[in-house]
Amino acid sequence: QLVESGGGLVQAGDSSRLSCAASGRTFSTYAMGWFRQAPGMERELVAAINWSGTNTYYADSVKGRFTISRDNAKNTVYLQMNSLKAEDTAIYYCAANPSLGDLSRGSWGQGTQVTVSS
Fold first, then answer.
1. CA 106 to CA 63: how far, in whole Å?
2. What is the DSSP secondary structure assignment for residue 15, as one 8-state letter?
3. 19 with 6: CB under 8 angstroms?
4. CA atoms 60, 79, 89, 96: torsion sign
5. How are strands ordered across the β-sheet holding 16-22?
6. Cβ atoms 81, 88 nearer than 8 A
7. How far is Cα 14 from Cα 37, in angstroms, rounded to an integer?
8. How far is CA 58 from CA 1, 9, 51, 73, in A?
9. CA 101, 102, 107, 111 torsion: positive or negative?
10. Residues 32-72: pLDDT tens digits?
């Protein structure tokens, strides 16, 4: 089970951090990722991290602004979002899968809304 928290309404240029708490003993062996879906748009992968945290992926639209990290001792993955833009407004979903390349086929959280006001 994945439970996201954080988000809400922020101003353009602000920072925000999302958290995703996972239950289960296999968290530390799973790749994790953050997807987002804006109204009328397809869900897109924003950032991903492998089980050990040594390999990360970022969508071009967030490179240099977002940072994904994980704390396996706390079964939690984070998404630090800096310099937020109006176009970052979306529902953000946490995903988990043993394979970094198949995150979209894994488990999903319920999503958390991020709204960036310009």
1. 24
2. -
3. yes
4. positive
5. 2-5, 16-22, 76-81, 66-71
6. yes
7. 20
8. 24, 23, 16, 24
9. positive
10. 999 999 999 999 999 999 999 999 999 999 999 999 999 99
Residues in the chain, how many? Answer: 118
Give residue 24's pLDDT: 78
* Amino acid letter for position 44: E
Give me the amino acid identity at 15.
Answer: S
Whether 49 contacts 36, CB under 8 Å: no
Amino acid at 107: S
- At 110 the three-state DSSP class reads coil
Locate 33 and state its tokens: 């990722």
Question: Which residue, 51, 47, 36, is CA-closest to 114?
Answer: 36
Query: What is the C-alpha to C-alpha distance for residues 100 and 33, in angstroms, rounded to an integer?
Result: 8
Best CA proximity match to 118, nearest among 8, 39, 46, 14? 14
d(CA 30, CA 105): 13
